[in-house]
């Protein structure tokens, strides 16, 4: 594990290794990242992703270096000499100073270039196609809420977006059952459907599509939704809202799920649009536990990238701490 750009680049054992390490680090909080510097560069706004990861790295003794997005990504401007320097040069420079980089970008292709140009681990803080850090927090929440080994049925109601993609991947990795419900105009293409079907076959779960939200939630242990209007889609508001009006998660829809089903949302939530107050504030709403887990899984993800021997079993936290103490 050299980078964390997508869930699909990991395997289930690596995902579980990150989760187990995250919980261990949360309980012990060793100064395992002392002397490590992680660069943060964000093209889009962020609360949970940015602050959760900052707190996680601080807890473990590491340092955060905030970089203005215009300094890293100005090369996207088309007019000659209107940008400071190429992304290639920027990554080569940051690689001289920092141990990893955490980037939130508009296009996944930017992350691929960062990985190619740099010499340090690149972590995806969200792009147009994937949100792996959210998926790690979500699957940790599922594991906290259900018995070990229990197969969970989750229904995602809404847009086939980056959050839904990474969530579906990680749920299927552990043999869970995922149902997607949303308007056809904003659903999955055939390539993604085939990919999810392959994951289902490989790991023993299932992936189904039911465009009737009332039918889709009937067997749900968990009901999940996200904003209908992702960042950068504000100009599509009128058209998307028209298509998604039947997919609002409200008390009536939530009542059709299994008894004691949970509600999940990656946040930020647009109350009154994709979800109503009586659902997001329900006693079975787990949204703030998800938010806390964003910080917890950041501990495991960054530590695993900076100390990859922890996931291979060649080292333990105790052995690394002993080595660190001997060096210092």
Automatic annotation (TrEMBL):
Annotated EC: 2.1.3.3
All copies of the Aspartate/ornithine carbamoyltransferase carbamoyl-P binding domain together span 2-144
Top-level EC class: transferase
Source organism per UniProt: Rhodohalobacter sulfatireducens
UniProt-recorded Gene Ontology molecular function terms: ornithine carbamoyltransferase activity
Residue ranges of every copy of the Aspartate/ornithine carbamoyltransferase Asp/Orn-binding domain listed in the record: 151-303
Which gene underlies this protein? argF
Q: So which domain of life are we looking at?
A: Bacteria
Pfam families in UniProt: OTCace, OTCace_N
* UniProt protein name: Ornithine carbamoyltransferase
Its family remark reads: Belongs to the aspartate/ornithine carbamoyltransferase superfamily.
Which ranges form a coiled coil?
Answer: none
Q: Which UniProt keywords apply?
A: Transferase
């Amino acid at each position: 594990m050299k980078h964390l750009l997508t869930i699909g680049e990991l395997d289930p054992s690596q995902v579980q290794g990150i989760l187990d390490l995250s919980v261990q680090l949360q309980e012990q909080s060793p100064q395992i990242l002392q002397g490590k510097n992680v660069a943060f560069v964000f093209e889009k706004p962020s609360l949970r992703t940015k602050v959760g990861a900052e707190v996680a790295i601080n807890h473990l003794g590491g340092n955060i270096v905030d970089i203005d997005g215009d300094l890293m990504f100005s090369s996207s401007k088309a007019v000659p000499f209107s940008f400071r320097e190429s992304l290639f040069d920027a990554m080569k420079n940051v690689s001289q100073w920092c141990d990893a980089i955490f980037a939130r970008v508009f296009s996944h292709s930017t992350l691929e270039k960062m990985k190619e140009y740099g010499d340090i681990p690149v972590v995806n803080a969200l792009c147009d196609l994937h949100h792996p850090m959210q998926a790690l927090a979500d699957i940790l929440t599922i594991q906290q809420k259900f018995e070990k080994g229990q197969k969970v049925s989750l229904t995602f109601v809404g847009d086939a977006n980056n959050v839904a993609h990474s969530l579906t991947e990680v749920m299927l990795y552990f043999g869970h059952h995922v149902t997607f419900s949303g308007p056809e105009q904003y659903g999955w293409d055939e390539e993604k459907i085939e990919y999810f079907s392959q994951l289902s076959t490989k790991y023993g779960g299932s992936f189904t599509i039911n465009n009737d939200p009332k039918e889709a939630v009937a067997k749900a242990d968990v009901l999940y939704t996200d904003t209908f209007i992702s960042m950068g889609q504000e100009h599509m508001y009128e058209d998307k809202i028209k298509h998604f009006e039947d997919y609002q998660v409200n008390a009536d829809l939530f009542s059709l799920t299994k008894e004691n089903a949970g509600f999940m949302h990656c946040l930020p939530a647009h109350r009154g649009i994709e979800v109503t107050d009586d659902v997001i504030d329900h006693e079975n709403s787990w949204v703030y536990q998800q938010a806390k887990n964003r910080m917890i899984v950041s501990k495991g993800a960054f530590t695993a990238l900076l100390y990859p021997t922890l996931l291979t079993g060649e080292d333990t936290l105790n052995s690394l701490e002993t080595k660190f103490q001997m060096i210092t």
